[in-house]
């Protein structure tokens, strides 16, 4: 199924067609008034949806990339596993409970409550609760100091805009 997004209203409109695998630009489409379906010259049908291009681009970010100006929203945020276990906090490496502090229980490879323990449910590559399983169904949540969920701490999938890679946060925010 594809979505047709009307970008300009004029006799010769330009459209963005978002299909499952690609983005297509189209011009000179003909509206069938009875079916309210757009048809191109080849007869392909698309569902008509009117919206502004800016709304579409702002509503559906493709990647959850961390920008340097966003670091303040992550600083001090708690990492909470799906079972409620505190897995540490996000912040500079000198903070005692930061997952980036080499001396912290939350950054070790031996602690059962560390995302960096490849034998724990939170740090292996196969657990549904793991940060490092890109298809995990329940990765740890990132909770701000105000108690609001920022997103999930997870390496993927890249199309999920609610998931943030811990390495991306670490290096973008210069917390290494």
Write the layout of secondary structure elements.
Blueprint: E1 3-6, E2 14-18, E3 23-27, E4 30-32, E5 37-39, E6 45-50, H1 53-59, H2 71-74, E7 78-80, E8 86-89, E9 141-143, E10 149-153, E11 163-164, H3 166-172
Parallel strand pairs: 1-6, 10-11
Antiparallel strand pairs: 1-2, 2-3, 4-5, 5-6, 7-8, 7-9, 9-10
Detailed description of the structure:
With 176 residues, this protein is an alpha+beta fold. 10% of the residues lie in helices and 24% in strands. It has three helices and eleven strands, in the order E-E-E-E-E-E-H-H-E-E-E-E-E-H. The protein has helices at residues 53-59, 71-74, 166-172, and strands spanning 3-6, 14-18, 23-27, 30-32, 37-39, 45-50, 78-80, 86-89, 141-143, 149-153, 163-164. Strands 3-2-1-6-5-4 form a six-stranded mixed beta sheet, with no helix packed on it. Strands 8-7-9-10-11 form a five-stranded mixed beta sheet. A hairpin with a 7-residue loop joins strand 1 and strand 2. The longest helix has 7 residues, at 53-59. It is globular and about 30 Å long.
Strand content: 15-25%
What series of H and E elements makes up the topology?
Answer: EEEEEEHHEEEEEH
The residue-averaged pLDDT reads: 76
What class do helices, strands and sheet pairing give? alpha+beta
Head-to-tail CA distance between termini: 44 Å
Morphology call? globular
List the quaternary state of the chains. Answer: single chain
Rg, alpha carbons: 22 Å
- Uncertain runs with pLDDT below 50, 5 residues or more? 1-12, 19-38, 41-63
SS summary, helix count: 3
Query: Strand order within the widest sheet?
Result: 3-2-1-6-5-4
Percent of residues in helices: 10-25%
Extended strand count: 11
Sketch the major β-sheet. Answer: 6 strands, mixed
